[in-house]
Amino acid sequence: METWFARTGVRADLVHSPGAGEETLTGWYFRDYHNRPMGVRGISLGVLLACSLVHSGCNLTGLLIRGQTDGAAEFAEERGTEFADRELVGGVIADGIVTSTGLLYFVEDYEPLLLSAIFGRIAYGVGWLGLRAEELEVEEGKFDEAEKLQKRAGLLYASALRLAKRTLRLRDEGFDAAIAGGLATFKPWVDEHFYRKEDTEVLVVTGLAYFVQMIESEEGLAAAVDLPYGRYLLERSIEIDPTAEDAQALSTIGIVECTVPELMGGRPKLGLKLMQRAMELTERKSHGILVSAAERCAPPLQDRALFRKLLMEVIESGDVPEFRLPNKIARRRAELLLKQTGELFYD
Questions:
Q1: Fewest C-beta in 10 Å: which of 77, 119, 155, 322?
Q2: Which is higher by pLDDT, 1 or 327?
Q3: Confidence bin at 68 (pLDDT 50/70/90)
Q4: What is the pLDDT of residues 89-100, one digit of tens each?
């Protein structure tokens, strides 16, 4: 009989038990989650028993996956900032990408799982594959290896965008018609279906999936055909709540304004203002925003002083618990960018 692992391609060793005296990050999650009182878990034993006994339209597999997804999200919210080991967490995210692919085979319409799958692909592509590629280029001169990693990241971004479009279709079946009609029909469609603070997560995550194709992939501006749609998703999020998802909508639009050449409509001065607003809203605690402003906005403006000021602020800053891991990645990016100063500025 074909196993679930064989059918979905998910590695069976992802559910291994740690050895004596050893506990994996995943194991810590399950211990922490399942030791909670039954009332605060995503699924109660009574519901599971009812599904098992009645079998009257109750998708037990789907219910389990939903509960696992909700529990993992709750754990990440409460305990995720305690991990600052890039290698450890990178492995967990990579495994999560594989696992989410298998889980979506059974529960293809569960929005929290889709959002997690999208963000995991973006995060691993940018924070791990992209950063490692930059290390190989800047410090080791291994350009061929760096290119391979960038291509792998590009595949993740393409997958994230496909999942983002699936997520938007779940909100309303008129998504494709709205896209086909251009911005004139897309904007009213977004306004009609996304208007609460609870909607901002979907807007930001799906909007990021549109933008990362242009900002980070090798295709660059050639991947910008859907950019106006991604931009409006983020603009709508800002209208509802500019602080949502740590002001990522503001900073992302700022990055694009600085990345697109002025001859093609880019506005680096506006981009920098948007980035500075995002810094204010996060109290300059999210160092990734500072690094992105230095990398994307300072070179087009040829502002070497701003470039160094922002990067040194990141390098010299202390620990910020709620941004511990992303700030550690930002610090490493800052170190690499400082080594490229001579290549980015003419004076």
A1: 77
A2: 327
A3: low
A4: 888 888 889 888
Reference 243, options 200, 288, 212; nearest CA is 200
Q: How far, in Å, CA of 8 to CA of 6, rounded? A: 6
Taking CB atoms within 8 Å and a gap of at least 24, the contacts of 267-275 are 268/297, 268/300, 268/301, 269/301, 271/296, 271/297, 272/297, 272/301, 274/250, 275/250, 275/251
Kindly report the three-state secondary structure assignment for every residue of 64-114: HHHHHHHHHHHHHHHHHHHCCCHHHHHHHHHHHHHHHHHHHHHCCCCHHHH
pLDDT 10s digits, 160-211 = 999 999 999 999 999 999 999 999 999 999 999 999 999 999 999 999 999 8
Q: Note whether 305 and 313 are within 8 A (CB).
A: no
Spatial distance between the Cα atoms of 159 and 209, rounded to a whole number of angstroms: 9
